[in-house]
């Protein structure tokens, strides 16, 4: 069974899964203190419409890695999910490229006051008891490393690793292929005792360096080919060609697909994504990418492996 926003779902009934999609990416302090920048009713209605359109393409499940640092609000997501026939799997963890939030600065391992790692207790509670008193349980862990391994980033990685060891929940890591930080994340997690076969190295699709991608796979992890539509980082045709090359080499069983899209991302002014990144939305894979992959020689069996079988194994 897999925990979702609507409750437990048998793992073999997750169906077609996009493994890295956000419902919202927000700064909650800005939203709460400057409500004129956020129209709750409009945003919720828009999210329902976008997610219904995604479900109409045959997608059964999205995996939402929105955690602390990205504006997680599972109550809002639950209200939206009640209007959409779609499984939404939520995460616990912490998103930072540099230091930990001030809340954690003075207590915990290596700090002035020392003590146990409060992040571990928080993450484990989200997985075993539920998030914020909702009863909605996280089913996986999320952390991030961008350009380098800072002390704060390493502390989060270690906390995620410990929560994984205590609960068995799998891990997804935001990484930067240009800085090869997927390998750094793998080494930190491996040192902490994590089975790298339970890890997705996210945003691996931002590169055409198949030697790097094969090294990640050889180390045991899945690679997230999960930013389709973000053409500013890498055009769709190059992403397709990279997947086709790896699939042709027998590695479809180590890749998962997604867009890393959202209904609304407050990092960008309203309208900028639609204008500058018109393909960065939930249906780009089914409308454009899957036909292109077929044209590039990826078989139906391999597509099923990436969209159905690999997510099922990840959560098993």
UniProtKB/TrEMBL annotation:
Gene3D superfamilies: Metal-dependent hydrolases. Zn(2+) 1 binds at residues 20, 22, 142, 260. This is Phosphotriesterase. Its cofactor is a divalent metal cation. Pfam families: PTE (PF02126). It comes from Saccharopolyspora terrae. The modification N6-carboxylysine is found at residue 142. PANTHER family: PHOSPHOTRIESTERASE-RELATED (PTHR10819), PHOSPHOTRIESTERASE-RELATED PROTEIN (PTHR10819:SF3). One of its GO terms (molecular function) is zinc ion binding. PROSITE patterns: PHOSPHOTRIESTERASE_2. It comes from the Bacteria. Binds 2 divalent metal cations per subunit. Belongs to the metallo-dependent hydrolases superfamily. Phosphotriesterase family. InterPro entries: Metal_Hydrolase (IPR032466), Phosphotriesterase (IPR001559).
């Amino acid at each position: 069974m897999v925990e979702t926003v609507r409750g437990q779902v048998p793992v073999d009934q997750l169906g077609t899964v996009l493994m890295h999609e956000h419902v919202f990416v927000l700064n909650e302090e800005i939203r709460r203190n400057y409500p004129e920048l956020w129209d709750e009713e409009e945003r919720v209605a828009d999210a329902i419409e976008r997610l219904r359109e995604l479900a109409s393409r045959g997608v059964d499940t999205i995996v939402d890695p929105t955690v602390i640092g990205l504006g997680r609000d599972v109550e809002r997501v639950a209200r939206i999910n009640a209007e959409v026939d779609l499984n939404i799997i939520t995460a616990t963890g912490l998103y930072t490229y540099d230091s930990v939030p001030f809340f954690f600065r003075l207590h915990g391992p290596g700090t002035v006051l020392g003590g146990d790692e409060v992040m571990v207790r928080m993450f484990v509670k989200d997985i075993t008891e539920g998030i914020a008193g909702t009863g909605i349980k996280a089913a996986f862990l999320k952390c991030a490393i961008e350009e380098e391994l800072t002390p704060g980033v390493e502390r989060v990685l270690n906390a995620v690793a410990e929560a994984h060891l205590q609960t068995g929940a799998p891990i997804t890591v935001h990484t930067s292929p240009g800085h090869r930080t997927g390998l750094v994340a793998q080494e930190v997690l491996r040192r902490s005792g994590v089975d790298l076969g339970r890890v997705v190295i996210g945003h691996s699709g931002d590169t055409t360096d198949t030697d790097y991608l094969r090294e990640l796979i050889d180390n045991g992890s899945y690679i997230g080919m999960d930013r389709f539509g973000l053409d500013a980082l890498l055009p769709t045709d190059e992403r397709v060609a990279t997947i086709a090359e790896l699939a042709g080499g027998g590695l479809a069983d180590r890749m998962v697909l997604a867009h890393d899209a959202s209904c609304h991302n407050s990092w960008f002014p309203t309208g900028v994504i639609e204008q500058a990144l018109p393909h960065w939305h939930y249906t780009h894979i089914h409308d454009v990418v899957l036909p292109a992959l077929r044209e590039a020689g990826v078989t139906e069996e391999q597509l099923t492996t990436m969209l159905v079988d690999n997510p099922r194994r990840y959560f098993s």
